[in-house]
Amino acid sequence: MAEPVAHPITVAIERRINPSRTAEATSWMQAGTDLATGFPGFLGSGWVRAGEGSDLWYMLYRFRDIPTLEDWEQSSQRAWWLESGRAFASEVRVERRTGIEGWFDASFATAVETRTLGDGTTSTGPIQQPIPAAPPRWKQAVTIWLGFFPTNLLASWLLGFVPGFGDWPLVFRVLLATLLLTPVMTYAVLPWVTRALRPWLQRAA
């Protein structure tokens, strides 16, 4: 029996933060991101506030698959980090998104703004905006198709120049095409298409 395909796991956490300890919470959230960065399978993270006057803060992180995510979530480092923030941070809600749906909240991990200061150094801080919900499934399907169709069309045309490729058994032609297209779609096409269509994807019905 074939092993199940591993998908990236995106976790969104909503927390309430004591407004009187905002500066402390800012350092604490960044420390959590820095800790997660050192774990295998880590694909990125970020955090935002719901608004300047709100006590709701959101943290988003992504791991390669469930085992690497669980290594982080069950680690002594994360346990220490959570304990260090218990006095001013309380967890309200946690959501996990798996598979292709995770692409459609990928940009929220970049909702930490890096600014260049006058002396040439950089300063990092949150962009104060809420984390939207994932777009409807039909929009996700359209987005994936818009990326897959031209990519597959170009790949089919290029593979036609491979001597004897058309004489290969169908299963081997499909195998080669999917081996080539999967990383291209995952690391290049889908991120670009979702960024380009972000206003449409996030538009309310």
Summarize, please:
This protein has 205 residues and is an alpha+beta fold.
How do the strands and helices of this protein lay out in sequence?
Blueprint: E1 9-17, H1 22-37, E2 42-49, E3 56-63, H2 66-73, H3 76-84, E4 89-98, E5 112-116, E6 122-126, H4 137-159, H5 170-196, H6 198-202
Antiparallel strand pairs: 1-3, 1-4, 2-3, 5-6
Quickly count the helices: 6
Largest sheet: 4 strands, antiparallel
How would you classify the helix and strand content by structural class? alpha+beta
For the secondary structure, the number of strands is: 6
Order of H and E elements: EHEEHHEEEHHH
* Overall pLDDT score: 78
Using only C-alpha atoms, the radius of gyration works out to 21 Å
Placed side by side, the strands forming the largest sheet appear as 2-3-1-4
Unreliable segments of 5+ consecutive residues? 106-118, 120-131
- Termini separation comes to 42 Å
Assess the beta-strand content as a share of residues.
Answer: 15-25%
**Approximately how much helix is present in the residues?**
40-55%
Q: Globular, elongated, flat, extended or rod-shaped: what is the shape?
A: elongated
Describe the oligomeric state of these chains in a short phrase.
single chain
What does this structure look like?
With 205 residues, this protein is α+β, with helices and mostly antiparallel strands. The chain is 43% helix and 22% strand. It is built from six helices and six strands. The protein has helices spanning 22-37, 66-73, 76-84, 137-159, 170-196, 198-202, and strands at residues 9-17, 42-49, 56-63, 89-98, 112-116, 122-126. The strands form two sheets. Strands 2-3-1-4 form a four-stranded antiparallel β-sheet. Helix 1 (22-37) runs antiparallel to helix 3 (76-84) and helix 4 crosses helix 5 (170-196). The longest helix has 27 residues, at 170-196. The termini are far apart. 19% of the residues are buried.
